[in-house]
Write a structure and sequence with these properties.
The protein is mostly beta strands and about 850 residues long. The protein has 10 helices and 54 strands. It starts with 11 loop residues before the first strand and ends with a strand.
């Protein structure tokens, strides 16, 4: 609350104005009027003219008092007015009887705001009032912290010195307001990008409207029509000139010219009041305004002294710093400079802007870098038809804006679309323009405002900031890569990526910096719609197939830590030396089997193929041995799955006895009577002196059945002299009880279309037992392969008789005359 004193001087009226600017209808010459504006006027109608002359405060903190008394005994209670965070609070000074001031001799009025409570506690910010004509001054304050604030004025003119008041910062601006999250600045956290004061990223989508301060764009009809259209299309930034001296009405607005008679010593407050409502409307509709302070060939030459330049800069900053703006020191600066030089203007803005708005300089069809390394030059503002210069100018680690890459009308909408996408994909921002909507001769028809090129910009903006699918954290992007052939990649390594492709044909990208899965979709930049799905893994180059030309893909990295799921596990085809292990996984993975006898997994077999159906064959196993094994599957991201340990036992060793007798001598592998057996034409045969009778036995001694080697199958081939009787009635001998020519065992005899099973005694037919005959076979013939599989079942000894791998008969001995024995032999039995 304020403490009042009665003085003999003439009175000064103070107005406390809170500016929200949600919708601004009109601004009169002396006061801003708006449904969103709260005016607290301390004047005679409230307190009575005799009660006070002017309101002064002793320390600023008395604003927190509830009741103060003036010398006349009048008790006053002043309720603090609310202003939303990042809104505008205005203090209006008016000296009713004092000597009128002028733009040139207006006294400096400093207003210091001090935070008293909440987040505002301890914060201090000073602003300067600007001259509003004759005896009026206004100071604008944008609170950036919630809580109670007080203010105190200081001035060399006693009529404006020592006044104070307070406000309460609470609530927020509407969501669509450009300042809802605070003024836009260069991001402290993410170089090359913009962010609001509260840290919310700002993805700049700019448009050109050089005449936004001028009557060339009538207020409110044309101006609001233009702003509404661009807001609907997703634009959030527009740049234009603060004033011009061009003829045909362009040099004035509804308040008249900016300076009377083009004299920069004679400022017209009404022009700037009219500009207030335009900038307020822009901000209320979500637009940051880029303010071009001067133009080398036109307005900067009007300033003939540094004092005139500084006075103008101070006026603009004091009046518009509380708005959401970007300072552009000059348009096409290479054409000329103000008398102070461009650097002086930039440095002055840097030092005197209380809200630290971006500062830049507009170029002339170049990407010039005369000032871009300077600290005051916080944003790079190109004007070039070469979008690749974005990549070059990022070397300054500042946001890069191509403010004039081309205008729709001078280039086709499709050319503009391609350039805009390339600028973004290289890590920059752009300002669009249309030849029929951007200048003082704008024709704001629906056809011009809603052009094809503007719709392409809307699709671009939707993709990056409002796509309804994924919130792209573009401000975090650190990777910008030219893939060649009109393709670009941008992203945050290991998190998310955007890939643009102008051609339609398939291509590959390699993301070696991450071992992850990718999931995303294609987006058509001409139609503004999402198309085909994308998925893959980054362990190898990824093939991308755009659904059309001019498509962009967004995909995010999926941090997959889930191991593959193993199912359908099976051990099959177990023999004495081999076993087949098979299983499936729910995703592609490599395979490994660890195994060993006696629970020691000392061996392993790996398959590096990335598949879902896995099979590994274990070989060189020991017969009749129990093995323990463990199955492992590792997906492409290295996630490992392990199946529980299991075991299996190998079977007895299986041998097929086959001797081709490709030699001159029978050799040591056979036990025989040398007087009766010989090799003839690679066949085993009896000598001519062998006498008639079944008593000639040859035993194969190289391989015999024992506890380690189980014979369950043997084969032989009939020689070229085979006949219906089986080469003079020869037979195979099985399960012989000794390695000698007098052994006993089975004799399997194939002759005349049938097979006989006999039990021979001591190597002789005499005393043999006929165990059965099985007809229906073909006669033996040369070259036939005979295979006999031995099965010692509980009910009988079976002999499966195959001819050329086809089962021909099953002979059996139900008496099991020769029971299961650990050691036995095999051979041939012949009639002499």
């Amino acid at each position: 609350m304020l403490k009042s004193f009665r003085c003999r001087h003439d009175w000064v009226r103070l107005s406390f104005v809170i500016l929200n600017f949600a919708v601004v209808h009109s601004i009169a010459a002396q006061e801003l009027q708006s449904p969103a504006t709260v005016i607290d006027t301390v004047d005679a109608s409230v307190y009575g003219e005799s009660a006070w002359d002017r309101r002064r405060v002793v320390p600023c903190a008395v604003a927190a008092s509830s009741v103060n008394k003036n010398p006349a005994g009048l008790a006053t209670a002043i309720t603090l007015k609310n202003v939303p965070r990042y809104g505008i609070y205005e203090v209006a000074f008016y000296d009713a009887a004092g000597k009128p001031a002028t733009y040139r001799n207006a006294p400096a009025v400093k207003v210091t705001f001090t935070g008293l409570s909440g987040e505002a506690t301890g914060k201090v910010l000073s602003v300067y009032a600007f001259w509003e004509g004759e005896r009026s001054f206004r100071a604008r304050f944008m609170p950036e912290a919630f809580g109670d604030w007080c203010w105190l004025s200081e001035s060399s003119d006693p009529n404006y010195d020592g006044y104070g008041g307070g406000l309460r910062c609470s609530g927020s601006l509407p969501d669509e307001h450009a300042s809802m999250h605070g003024p836009v600045r260069e991001s402290e956290k993410f170089p090359y990008t913009f962010a609001h004061a509260d840290g919310t990223p700002f993805f700049l989508i700019g448009d050109t409207q050089w005449a936004f301060s001028s009557a060339a764009l009538s207020w409110p009809e044309e101006f609001q029509t233009y702003v509404e259209a661009r807001a609907q299309q997703g634009f959030n930034y527009v740049h234009g000139r603060l004033f011009t001296i061009s003829p045909s009405g362009s040099a004035r607005n509804e308040g008249g010219p900016a300076f009377f008679a083009n004299s920069v010593d004679s400022l017209n407050p009404a022009y700037w009041q009219a500009l207030d409502q335009r900038l307020a409307y822009l901000n209320s509709k979500g637009f940051v305004a880029g303010l071009v302070l001067g133009w080398p060939a036109e307005t900067w030459p009007l300033f003939s002294s540094p004092e005139q330049v500084e006075r103008y800069l101070a006026y603009v900053v004091n009046r518009y710093a509380a708005f959401n703006v970007v300072w552009i020191t000059s348009g096409e600066y290479e054409k000329g400079a103000p008398i102070t030089g461009h650097a002086y203007v930039g440095e002055w803005l840097k030092a005197n802007d209380p809200y630290h708005h971006p500062i830049t300089t507009h170029t002339l069809d170049t990407s010039a870098d005369d000032f871009w390394a300077a600290k005051w030059h916080t944003t790079i503002y190109q004007q070039t038809s070469d979008p690749s210069r974005i990549s070059t100018d990022r070397r300054f680690a500042k946001p890069v804006i191509n403010s004039g890459f081309g205008y729709e009308g001078r280039q086709t909408a499709d050319e503009l679309r391609k350039d805009a996408w390339q600028i973004i994909m290289r890590g920059g921002y752009f300002v669009y323009g249309h030849t029929l909507t951007s200048d003082y001769d704008a024709v704001l028809t629906p056809e011009n405002l809603f052009s094809k090129g503007a719709s392409y910009i809307t699709y671009l903006q939707d993709f990056w900031t409002n796509n309804g699918k994924d919130a792209i954290a573009w401000q975090r992007f650190t990777k910008f890569e030219d893939l060649g052939n009109s393709r670009w990649l941008a992203g945050t390594p290991g998190v998310e990526y955007v890939v643009y492709s102008e051609p339609r044909d398939a291509f590959q990208i390699a993301l070696t910096e991450t071992q992850s899965k990718l999931d995303g979709d294609w987006f058509e930049t001409r139609a503004g719609r999402w198309r085909t799905h994308i998925s893959g893994v980054t362990t190898a180059p990824i093939t991308l197939s755009p659904p059309n030309g001019g498509c962009v893909a967004y995909f995010k990295v999926i941090k997959d830590t889930t191991p593959p799921l193993i199912s359908n596990f099976k051990i099959s085809d177990i023999t004495a030396n081999e076993a087949t292990i098979s299983w499936m996984t729910d995703e592609i993975a490599t395979a490994e089997v660890q195994y060993g006898p006696n629970d020691v997994l000392q061996n392993s077999v790996r398959d590096s193929a990335q598949v879902t159906q896995h099979q590994i064959v274990l070989n060189e196993l020991t017969p009749k041995t129990t093995y323990r094994l463990r199955v492992l599957a590792r997906d492409v991201l290295g996630n490992l799955a392990t199946a529980r340990d299991t075991s299996f036992t190998t079977g007895p060793e299986v041998f097929s006895v086959f001797d081709d007798f490709n030699r001159n001598q029978i050799g040591p592998d056979w036990t025989y009577d040398g007087a009766y057996w010989h090799i003839e034409a690679n066949e085993l045969d009896l000598n001519a002196n062998a006498q008639g009778g079944w008593r000639y036995l040859a035993v194969y001694n190289k391989l015999y059945n024992d506890r380690y080697t189980q014979i369950i199958e043997l084969s032989y081939r009939w020689g070229k002299r085979a006949d219906a009787g089986g080469v003079r009635e020869g037979a195979v001998a099985l399960m012989l009880d000794g390695n000698n020519t007098n052994a006993s065992g089975y004799w399997l005899w194939h002759r005349y279309g049938r097979v006989w099973l006999w039990a021979i005694n001591k190597g002789s037919y005499e005393g043999a037992t006929d165990l059965g005959r099985w007809p229906g076979l073909s006669d033996p013939k040369a070259g036939d392969l005979v295979t006999i599989k031995i099965r010692q079942e509980p009910d009988a000894n079976y002999f499966d008789y195959y001819i050329n791998n086809k089962l021909a008969a099953i002979a059996k001995d139900s008496t099991k005359m020769f029971p299961k024995s650990e050691v036995w032999y095999t051979g041939f039995f012949r009639y002499g």
